[in-house]
Amino acid sequence: xxxxxxxxxxxxxxxxxxxxxxxxxxxxxxxxxxxxxxxxxxxxxxxxxxxxxxxxxxxxxxxxxxxxxxxxxxxxxxxxxxxxxxxxxxxxxxxxxxxxxxxxxxxxxxxxxxxxxxxxxxxxxxxxxxxxxxxxxxxxxxxxxxxxxxxxxxxxxxxxxxxxxxxxxxxxxxxxxxxxxxxxxxxxxxxxxxxxxxxxxxxxxxxxxxxxxxxxxxxxxxxxxxxxxxxxxxxxxxxxxxxxxxxxxxxxxxxxxxxxxxxxxxxxxxxxxxxxxxxxxxxxxxxxxxxxxxxxxxxxxxxxxxxxxxxxxxxxxxxxxxxxxxxxxxxxxxxxxxxxxxxxxxxxxxxxxxxxxxxxxxxxxxxxxxxxxxxxxxxxxxxxxxxxxxxxxxxxxxxxxxxxxxxxxxxxxxxxxxxxxxxxxxxxxxxxxxxxxxxxxxxxxxxxxxxxxxxxxxxxxxxxxxxxxxxxxxxxxxxxxxxxxxxxxxxxxxxxxxxxxxx
Length: 503
What we know:
By secondary structure, this protein is of the alpha+beta class. The protein contains 19 helices and 10 strands.
């Protein structure tokens, strides 16, 4: 029985639909109480091929019918599910989505073990309940073996870091991108396979996770894949990083790039420190070792990896209290106001010595561990003195939240971090240019740490942070760093003030 889009359902047709679905909102599954009006809408949009018949009509509550706007009902239902899924945290991967879908009984299992057996120029792919075959290929550049196959979700996993082993999954899922691809694949084909590798009898995908995620939401349960059998982990990681950074349309989030590059760097660093052929170990020596290990890396790329390693040492330090406020994306959010980019351009650039050192790692002169611990201590000071009270749900009308929002504005942090460094150097009586370039590359006494804390107290307690809404400070903080810094100094936020002088 056809239902015209522009006419109302009659009572009999409504009864048929209610008998089929019950008084449940199709968007979320919740029960619509008696007495609350029912709405009816197309599950699949007529404009995209959905039939205008009763089997394509479902009930909705008034609230969700209003919220969905112009979205087809099925698309809105998926959007609500994504809202629920991404409410579990920021750093979510395909593995987390697979776990979510399994819990919701959309899929029965994933990451099942497989045996891949070479047979001449082919491979046989065996699992507990199926056997498949594919042509075996060989990369002419590396000699690595790989195959193409359409694989069920039962056999797939995400190539995440786990069990102290490095994974190749370079990015977290982006909610908006998953939803857009979900809608795109309703009418468009998938042009490229997802890419993975065989790891201890598990097939782990590291490229195309957004593709698989969106197809899963469309009901797809089999996926076109390219799977490497014997790839060198380090070179494959290098290639994957380049594919998602230098040659990608969608760039890495800064924090993810730091962790990925820092992770690979840390593994190579451990290998270098274990070398018996180079007894005098230094950071500069390690950079030369890395250059020999991979001659394709430029000096700029090596420096980028070194700094990523340094930043990740701070960011992932077990004592770092500020980490929960750092966004996984390149943009701050209501709940996570800080970004890796902001930290790099403010406190990290002002306080950390970011070039490779010549100090031997086996002597007392090497203070990199102390520097990292001192950096964590400084971050914790700002957390304990101010940012522990961050409330992402409070607006600018809340005086304390307004103060904190001004404190963590990007240009604000870049400007006051330099003033903080100068005051810190003054408190530590650092006069030599080399010492001032390494202000926290040292063992600090309890007294020195307390002196730095008093500087931080003066900084977060500056009266102008608490100015009323629409104060001049809000306009100034949109200017460039130099202008913001000059305005700070003109209005009392100076090195002298941070060291104890009156405002």
